[in-house]
Amino acid sequence: MFNATVLRIRTPAFKITKNCKSKDCHSVLYTIPHGRRFLSTSSCLYGKILPRKKPRVVHEIAGLEPITYADRMHFVPGLAKPRFPPWDRGWKDPSHYTSPKLEDMPLHKDKPCYMFNQRTNALEGVRQALWLSKSVIVKGLPAQILTLAEDPANQIENQDERVQDAIKNSRMWDTTEIRPPRERFCPSLLHRLLHLCAGLQVSRPELAKRILAEKYSLAVTWRRGEDVFQVRGQNGLLLNSMTPVPVLAGEEQIQSTADQALETFYPIAPTIDLQRTHVYQEKNDTGFREGYPYPHAHTLFLMEMGNTPKLFPEQLRAKMVMFTFGNALARAQALYGKEPRVLEKPIVVQSVATNGRLFQFVVFQLNTTDLQSDSGVKNLAWVDEDQPLYEFAKVRPFIKKKVVKIPAGLSGYQPDTFKKFLALYLHGAA
């Protein structure tokens, strides 16, 4: 029976290869039963790719000049390939630009710099960010912000209803798609929530002294141990204020951080996953010109959309800690200079990150700019993790085995998450 099957396949395959020599044979061969296994038919179509030949090494012998075919102006077998000096066009051609070697660049330094940017995916997450910023973590939000969140005087009229309408606008009413992409509804939801918070400007005049900045570029340099670190690049929306954010931790709590030890993650290096470069500039810039009327960074808003590098929640929180630390350190160096010191008045910067459903909250207080050693006063970071604003927002119900598992519309709304969001926004104005 097996021999009969082989003969039945071999006969039409032989006729095809004999009569068809063009690329059209590909589609015909795919229709033959087990055609890919008949090597005598498909070997010419599925042959191995030969490895790339190694370039020929030309040895230079001192005192001997190679004979080239430069005078003949065409290739001659047996003669060496001529080498001509680089041609100077007399003008800069961008399409033929050749960068100099790293060692010849004016910004080249022997000591490497490790950069944290918006695409960095920290392996150890928040623990790595705490070591880089010389900080200790406090679970949950500070008591001052939680008090603002629970105060009924700081809430919006018909708050829960209006927040749910904002969610439905972003997830269901803003598009005709059954499942809108995250890069569409995530920024839409964040802007609608910020619009709701800004509506309290009538009762809170201090909110008029703030402004949202987008696509600003941050650059700050510091030394940790024997290494040089930088936080650079553009990040999310930054809410700037004319007045600084109130200090959260008192003098006693700040001095108590001197006795706390920083958590290590040996044998993993703290510089893992950071961009390493020898060509850099030790730059310290808040991203705004001198004399900008809103110099104080208040809250940084980050969005995890579909068109950005995907980060796990732990790595996203590390990014929040590093960029809040970078904004605070850049402001401290602009106010007090680059000399390491314990700040008389600490600098506080907040951060909110969301993917359109889950919210992450971070509050960072910069107590010292003496970051080189592990001893002494340390900075503080309050982290509140994975706070869902809602569970599901469905245009159509999810039905499984004729049973409605998830109904259409908004379900699982969590009002406490927006209360924290609003309290961070009102911090310093309430």
TrEMBL record:
What Gene Ontology cellular-component terms does the record carry? mitochondrion; ribonucleoprotein complex; ribosome
Chief place where the protein resides: mitochondrion
Per UniProt, the keywords (alphabetical) are: Mitochondrion, Ribonucleoprotein, Ribosomal protein, Transit peptide
Keyword presence, Transit peptide = yes
Localization annotation:
Mitochondrion
Its Gene Ontology molecular function terms?
structural constituent of ribosome
Q: Among its keywords, does the record have Transit peptide?
A: yes
Family classification: Belongs to the mitochondrion-specific ribosomal protein mL37 family.
Q: What is this protein called?
A: Large ribosomal subunit protein mL37
